[in-house]
Specification:
about 80 residues, alpha+beta, four-stranded mixed sheet, about 15% helix, globular, Ubiquitin-like protease family profile domain-containing protein
């Protein structure tokens, strides 16, 4: 399942569960074993990172082509 940021504003502005369900139910992401989440890192140069989520193993795999230049570990809460 590829997650889009299209529905995040609905979440940010406290949309009802009915609205979220209506706009997202067609994706059926809960049936998928692997999710792909694209994350925009705005500063300092702005670029995208990719997180692959393994639902079965409960693992996150993060790909960041700038990781050596700007480490992200301090931004992750375990």
């Amino acid at each position: 399942a590829l997650f889009s940021k299209h529905n995040l504003p609905c979440v940010w502005y406290n949309a009802t569960d009915d609205i979220l369900w209506r706009t997202m139910s067609w994706t059926k992401h809960w049936d998928k074993l692997t999710w792909i989440l694209l994350i925009h890192r705005p500063s300092p140069c702005g670029h995208w990172v990719m997180c692959t989520i393994d639902i079965v193993l409960h693992h996150l795999f993060l790909f960041d082509s700038f990781a050596e230049e700007r480490p992200w570990r301090q931004e992750i809460e375990v």
